[in-house]
Description:
By secondary structure, this protein is α+β, with helices and mostly antiparallel strands.
Amino acid sequence: MSYAQCYGGHQFGMWAGQLGDGRAITLGEVLNSKGERWELQLKGAGRTPYSRFADGLAVLRSSIREFLCSETMHCLGIPTTRALCLLTTGQNVTRDMFYDGNPKEEPGAIVCRVSQSFLRFGSYQIHASRGKEDLDIVRKLADYAIKHHFPHIESMDRSDSLSFKTGDEDDSVVDLTSNKYAAWIVEIAERTATLVARWQGVGFTHGVLNTDNMSILGQTIDYGPFGFLDAFDPSYTPNTTDLPGRRYCFANQPDIGLWNIAQFSKTLAVAQLINQKEANYAMERYGDKFMDEYQAIMSKKLGLTKYNKEVISKLLNNMSVDKVDYTNFFRLLANVKANPNTPENELLKPLKAVLLDIGKERKEAWIKWMRSYIQEVGGSEVSDEERKARMDSVNPKYILRNYLCQSAIDAAEQGDFSEVNNLIRLMKRPYEEQPGMEKYARLPPAWAYRPGVCMLSCSS
Length: 460
């Protein structure tokens, strides 16, 4: 029996009550040859009991974006829901993309997306918010998730020695083997922290990190107004609705992930599944896990054998000041030779394609940084060739830039899906050079910065 999921959530930091799912219908679950459980869900197939005043439909534009980006993220090695197929409906759908009073008709489409579960933080929050009559549903949903998606938690026993000091003043201990729900929230916190660290590594900005868009599996879910960084800008948000406060901008994502874990922890506490010390420990683990993962990722991106805060912080500051392309910079950095005797006028040659229009003062800042970088990588026993190979394996050559997406959408709306297929093939191997495809790694053209290409609204 097909069904739509009921969930609520915090939107932009405020509890919004019941939200959906207003346009996603689960067809059912299948077990594959590996015994893995996969849920098949149609997005945009029509109204559900939770559609409220909406039509439950989706347009081709947003459907292509979800289809392309979920597959791109998978091939980048980032946990995500997947897109099984995309089809057009043959019917037009009316949408006001920018909420500016200018709606227009667009081609309708449906994505069949798959995941081992589409449960999100908001799936639990909605029932906790309704008080005593629904609190048992929170426990049942937690039991279901642990049984099917975290079965190792149920098999834990005290011999696993999963007891930890919380860091509180009273030096108390949290024993994860005595409460499966505490072990569960800690694992969700760690998975979420790992996910956000990986987003930061490739320059991905989700755009709408409401609690109803947070997967309990630590997957990227609900691709709306997402965007990959072009020029490095920590305050970048691809969501027009987020522009006033930039709550969900690139630099804020780690803190928002923690905030969302805090809300989920409160939900489990309200249902009396965990206590406050266990909730605090989950948040503590989020912070520790994020820093461990982020430092490891950034070290690998620079080809460093150990984390160097000064080198990395100064680099990101320089990139922000000069609006350096995030993806192309790290790819080119792999070409730098660890030769301390490199003449000053040749130090920046490997980066000339991304260090554009910098004056004398900024050039000196980059030369200073480059010398410190060469000194750092030169201190290891890794050869230039091996370092380049390692860096190329973690720094993608190709990402799904918004202008590439828009070009594919424009053609598809005219019935030509060749560019959608080109991008799917390209993004299957984002870390490889792929001769003949170099144009897809170019900096965005001027037209890419018009409204509707790099910025989208929440419901697009």
